[in-house]
Amino acid sequence: MKNFLLALLLLINFFAGSAFAHGTGYNISSFKAIPLEFFYSTGEKMSYREVKVFSPSDSKFAIQTGRTDEFGRFAFIPNISGDWRVIVRDEEGHQCEAKISVGEDFNAISQDNSGSQLEGFNLFFRALLGVSLIFNLAMLIKIFRRNK
Predict the structure, then answer these.
(1) Total-model pTM
(2) Which of 10, 20, 26, 118 has its CA 20 to 30 A from that of 38?
(3) Whether the predicted pLDDT of 52 surpasses 60
């Protein structure tokens, strides 16, 4: 009887380890991701910045959080159609908000990237900086001549 109980205990112990253990695995997904690239007005990539994704069903709590990669890229996989928001922030207070409309097939059908069209914006500020520099140099020369 003692040997039977010992054998039963060993058998239970052997199967208990495999009953409570679990493994891991992966699949290559066929879901459609929405890839985005984030950058500053200078063209510099927003590398390793905090990202929050908000679904159309909940605009207060992020459904996904993470960081951009070295090149300012981030992707998310929508699970419902509607208007999604992706917000990227850095430690200095800069923020970029992407608004993406996702269709029934989970593809991006439109995006509001009015904040991302920086070429004309950047050119305007460069021209403004140039005019300001010329004006400041002229004023400095005028002040210098007056003090002679």
Answers:
(1) 0.62
(2) 26
(3) yes
